[in-house]
Amino acid sequence: MRSKVEPEGRKRTFTEEARRRQIVECAITTIAKEGLAQASLARIAGEVGIAKSVISYHFAGKDELISEVINALLRESNQFIKGWVERADTAQDRLRAYIEASFAFMAEHRENFAAMVDIWGSFGTVEAKRAFNATAYDPCRRHLEGILKAGQDSGEFRAFTPRTMAATIQGAIDGVMLQWVFDAQAIDLPECAAELTAMFDLATRS
Amino acid sequence: MRSKVEPEGRKRTFTEEARRRQIVECAITTIAKEGLAQASLARIAGEVGIAKSVISYHFAGKDELISEVINALLRESNQFIKGWVERADTAQDRLRAYIEASFAFMAEHRENFAAMVDIWGSFGTVEAKRAFNATAYDPCRRHLEGILKAGQDSGEFRAFTPRTMAATIQGAIDGVMLQWVFDAQAIDLPECAAELTAMFDLATRS
Amino acid sequence: MRSKVEPEGRKRTFTEEARRRQIVECAITTIAKEGLAQASLARIAGEVGIAKSVISYHFAGKDELISEVINALLRESNQFIKGWVERADTAQDRLRAYIEASFAFMAEHRENFAAMVDIWGSFGTVEAKRAFNATAYDPCRRHLEGILKAGQDSGEFRAFTPRTMAATIQGAIDGVMLQWVFDAQAIDLPECAAELTAMFDLATRS
Amino acid sequence: MRSKVEPEGRKRTFTEEARRRQIVECAITTIAKEGLAQASLARIAGEVGIAKSVISYHFAGKDELISEVINALLRESNQFIKGWVERADTAQDRLRAYIEASFAFMAEHRENFAAMVDIWGSFGTVEAKRAFNATAYDPCRRHLEGILKAGQDSGEFRAFTPRTMAATIQGAIDGVMLQWVFDAQAIDLPECAAELTAMFDLATRS
DNA sequence: CATGAATGAGCCTTCATTCAT
DNA sequence: CATGAATGAAGGCTCATTCAT
Question: Is the pTM higher than 0.85?
């Protein structure tokens, strides 16, 4: 519930927006380094170099902060991928671009994904998990589904259930990412990327 | 930290073993239902129907309990998969068995995986993550690697880096599982399983 | 909301009951001495000589503690007054007993009333105030009303609205008490008591 | 604590005075509506429509603000009562005027008394309570005492201790008011007023 | 073996207050 | 004069852990 003193829709100053971004950034770092469970407001504030009450000043509560963290993580990644995909012409190339962009972004933002994996576990109830799914996974799957359907319409791709194939592709990407987050040295990221692009190319083409 | 009074290797009585198993079982249920964050010793003890100090009595601490939970989750799943794989003759069939068994077990033990996903996020530090990787992922990848190498030796499989292919296969399985844990209705598990078996069959055969 | 772990109706051990009483007692002392606003759990715990988490262990929260404090304050006072009233035979004597008992109890339990006055102000919302009224005032007024009606029925008392007269009597008692709580030396309690008994005797008799 | 830079008696500009009055007014409203405990500077500032630091600017601290609130509440009420009393000629009429004015003012300013009751509880220490007594109650009792003594001197009133009778009268008024603040519907204010005027008339006349 | 009771560290949050702009 | 931003102290509460019984 929002305080009655500070109504929902008030405009934020430039300074405040900057602080919020800074805090979100440091929250991600802290979560990635120490784990969500250890990422208390005190620790995060320590990372920023401010008093922990400053966080409470800028965010309605820890929930809002974490929510912003999730948004930031998803937004950044999705924008990057969308950019690569848009630059490709054929459906095949767009699918390849989607996978390659996913891995390219991963490689440059390991911290983000370490945080993400930690956050995955924080949606305890079935309800919360489903809500997160709607925010995080559905957009990705829909994006992929669009690419796949277009490819089927143009005759580039064979017949398959787009929804399932999309889930499979996203799953493969995330599953590899997961292992890589747990131990970067155990996974050869470029090789996995290459393997998956080749495989899904083979698996989808007509 | 282990107590100095009770040396590491001390044998546990039958009763003790039973209690530990019971507690671990209920811990899994609690984590799956409410999320790791809500799974306090009090809640778990409540689920078992005992005082929370009983847990402290049987386990060195919460860390040991969670550690046992992880072991239990991995052991069950791995044994099941190993069973299916062993019943297959050719490398191709063993690979297919591995994937199919993974999905079959999933479908029957959603609770286990819900708990697992929650626990993933509890390995805050890089160190803890690596340790979990060694326990959880490496055995799976090694198992797969063995299947793949044997297939290459027998000429059934084409040339590829077994380690990477293993990571990719396991990743695809886990990634789909993850989405399914977040929202069972969003994922058609059997279709995903079929898609993946077909795909990896295609991707590995020579 | 009650925790799911400790269901509402569980029985309390003798020891726990004793601790609760002790804590309530010290809470009253602390509130009387320092004011409700300063009566933090820490301060109260300090007064008892225990860690503040002990209070949280025995009470669901500060609200429950304060609620128990109120109950204790009202119960003690009401029982005492009821005892005196019951020992009187005529309506006139019972009314006199009610007033005299009120002042007698006051004189011996200044702390209780100091706490009570502080608590009066803690029911911020209209809703909370009304709820407190139902618990605290209504029983007193009803008790008085009963005495007055009986006196009217027996012909001892003249005609008046019993409800209003009850409110007036209780008001006079509480109003004097209030001034006495604020400064004991400013009020001559026995004289006020005598004045009020005489006055209400005169005001009610037929 | 007063700043050393701004000496006590410094004159305030007209604008400053206006702001202070406005803030005090809104503070009363806020306290009456939400309770003193919820009346943070932020909430009060919200009610006024200014930043909370403005309050800090115009008042030495929250204590000074509350102190001004009390003064405002008492001043208004006392002036009103004094006005009515002055218009009466005999001691009996003045006493009746005092009581009737008290109830008349009450009826029109419920908010003020709701705030007052809340504030009563904020004088935690014995010291603070006595100080409040000196400001709030003593003037009222002295006023009443004056009326009573004059009546005794003129032979209108019988012999009694004026101080005690004054405390009793004021007590009766405040006690009824208290119940009415807790639940307006539980109390018939005009009837109580009539009852009290009649009663004290009877109780004082010679 | 099991338990009820107690503990202290740590968490999130609120709030009066300060200060540069 | 007014404000937005920041602060640190304090508050209530949760929880893993310890220990006498």
Answer: yes
